[in-house]
Amino acid sequence: MSPVVRRKEERFALPGKYLLLILTLICIFLMLLTFGTSIFEKPLNTSLGYVVVPFQEGISRAGEWLSNRSEELAQIRVLLEENARLKEQVASLTEENTLLQQDKYELNELRALMELDEQYGEYKKTGARIIARDPGNWYTSFDIDKGTEDGIEEDMNVIAGGGLVGRVTAVGPNWARVTAIISDNSNVSAMTLVSGDNLIVSGDLKMMADGVISFSKLVDSKDVVVEGDKIVTSDISDKYLPNILIGYIHTINQDNNNLTKSGYITPAVDFEHLSEVLVITDKKQTIASPMENE
Questions:
Q1: Is residue 266, in this structure, part of any structural domain at all?
Q2: pLDDT(211) > 60
Q3: How far, in Å, are 74, 82, 90 from residue 87 at the CA level?
Q4: Which of 65, 82, 272, 285 sits 20 to 30 Å CA-CA off 205?
Q5: How many whole angstroms separate alpha carbon 218 and alpha carbon 234?
Q6: What range does the domain containing 143 cover?
Q7: What is the pTM of this model?
Q8: Cα–Cα separations (whole angstroms), residue 211 to 105, 177, 261, 273
Q9: What percent of the chain has pLDDT over 90?
């Protein structure tokens, strides 16, 4: 063996007595460590208890809070879904209620028209629905869904709600225009039902704000006409069939000439709410012509 290798082995060689000493010290250290652990175990556990237990309690409380929040969120989700379902039910019931109210309104309208049909049973009539009207609060002029294809002609009388609405003034294939008696340019030859005295009923939109229209040229020499008396279309009218109710005397005044009277009439028809009407297909000219030929 070379001298260099021998010197390296001698340099790293550890004498046996030192090795024994090191092992002895290690054994003593382990014995002391074991003995010390048993002595300090209780204080160590106590110290750890002060640190670990609060930490564990905090984690437990946090977990409990998160669990409660999770349950609350689940309940809120269920409530929101239930609320959405209830809103849908309310919307559906509201729509159904609206339709029922509309059906009830239309049923009442139809009943009124049936009663009106029976009241004027001597005339031929056809029902029509209002499809358009002029702007404003009142049905002064409006269109219906019947026309020449349905036998509608100009000057046919239109009734609704217990009385006279107006007359047809224009006609198309499937529509017709009706001008109401409350229009400013409307004049109707009328008479009092109680005495048969003649008068002229004129449309007056300004007075319709008070629910009345005007009348004039009433000859009531015997002073028998009073407020509340019925006014109907007269036999001498050239456009309107006779004895159709127009309205009721609201106010009556003596004119300055002391020969005639004037005042206001409450129309029998509610001109603010119209949807269905009856068109009398018999015309005054048609009915009057046989009499004229005789």
A1: yes
A2: yes
A3: 20, 9, 5
A4: 285
A5: 12
A6: 125-282
A7: 0.63
A8: 22, 23, 20, 13
A9: 46
